[in-house]
Amino acid sequence: MADQDTLPSRLVHLDLKGAPLCLSYLEKVLPLFRTFGATGLLIEYEDTFPYHDDLKTIRAPHAYSEDNIKDILKLAEDNNLEVIPLVQTFGHLEFVLKHQQFAALREIKKYPMALCPSHHDSVTIVCKMIDQVIKLHPQVKHFHIGCDEVYHLGLCEACTQRMIKEYLTKDQLFFEHVRNVAKHIKAHYDSITVIIWDDMLRYSEMSIILNCGLGDLVEPMVWHYLPKFILPASLWDNLSAVFPNIWIASAFKGATGPKSVITNILYHLDNNNSWLDTVQLVKRKFKNIKGIAVTGWQRYDHYAILCELLPQGLPSLAICLKAIQQGTLGPNDIGQVAKELKFLTPIPFNPFISPEIPICEFPGSEIYQLTIEYVHTEAAYNELFALDGMTAWMHEYNVQRKFINPVHVEPLLGRAISILDSYHSLDKKIQATFRHVFVDGVEEEWRACFITPSIQRLEAFMEKARSLLYSDPETALCEEMNVE
């Protein structure tokens, strides 16, 4: 069981990749974060930061302006929330390396994910990114430089030749790049503590960790998002031999599938409870476990579509932070969260099996309700196209031969009409709700990924069914009144 002293910093991760939040929405939710028990924000801007000069190519069309960043920092300050920027500096650099201007920095020419640590401009570019972010965050005390999931490492010609010439391993290539980036921050901003993700150290042997040269430069943030932990048993001894201070990272949303649109609160609560148990087991190995980042991923990477949106995950965030802050969660605590989020019906800990749309009123609750309604509609849609009538009696072979029995097709058409009406209703709600939470473009993407393909498939099926059932379109419309 943990308490506030065990995890003094409780950070809410804002993943803004390609979907920045409106300032008016942040103005509403940041006070809630503080109420939930958060002490800070871990902000992953990616391409939404206003990079400029020779980095302006990185900046997305919908990126924040410099004044927007200042407004976000003021909102955080007003709510007593520390801001920690997160800038990827090794892996997950698709938002940089996809541009022709920076393509020469790729470890593998055709893959824009990882930076080549042997290219003479690699450290220069990421340090310029860091400098521009810090300039707009002059009060920052911690800076996260990412460095997770560097899947392409030591593979290009420059790296392989260097490894042979200098007798380096892939681990040593990784460590040197991280050291160079961290040393830049230490040299120019000596009051800033550098944080990295832990996973590139996670399976290294003790002897390798002892010689990484990072102990006085960075603090690892150990991330794990599963309810049941599968971290290596040696991890804590290995890390504590070099790093006196560490952080941990759980998840409140965005860790159960790249296309998932609603949040399983129970799954994430179990993950956070597992972290609380683990902290009690390992905390004596370290001088400090400085805090926890409760991550809320919005995309799995730069090229992935959107997964769970922030409003959908807010009840999960509130419950997870309450558990972290208090070390336990009772019925009264859940009731308090329900009151804060104005739930008039019980909070569904597993909305996948909840038959009703919850009644609630919090910033973005319309999107929370809409995405649950979408999942119900999607379930009906998937069930329709899995029916025997669809897969057997409306098989493409039969359709091409016009060999169908109306007794099987008419009920399918009726169900398709009803489901299509539900999708059209959702489509209208999206237009009315997204604009109050996200900048322009997010609504269009969500519709194109989750609504439009289903509408198009339904319409294609209905056209096909009508052509088989009725020779006269006018007759079709009249007949469908009876089908429904």
Automatic annotation (TrEMBL):
InterPro entries: GH, Glyco_hydro_20_cat, HEXDC-like
Domain Glycoside hydrolase family 20 catalytic: 60-205
Class of the enzyme per the UniProt entry, highest EC level: hydrolase
Catalyzed reaction equations: Hydrolysis of terminal non-reducing N-acetyl-D-hexosamine residues in N-acetyl-beta-D-hexosaminides
BP-aspect Gene Ontology terms: carbohydrate metabolic process
GO MF annotations, alphabetized: beta-N-acetylhexosaminidase activity
Protein name: beta-N-acetylhexosaminidase
Record has Glycoprotein as a keyword: no
Pfam families in alphabetical order: Glyco_hydro_20
Organism: Biomphalaria pfeifferi (Bloodfluke planorb)
Protease is among the record's keywords: no
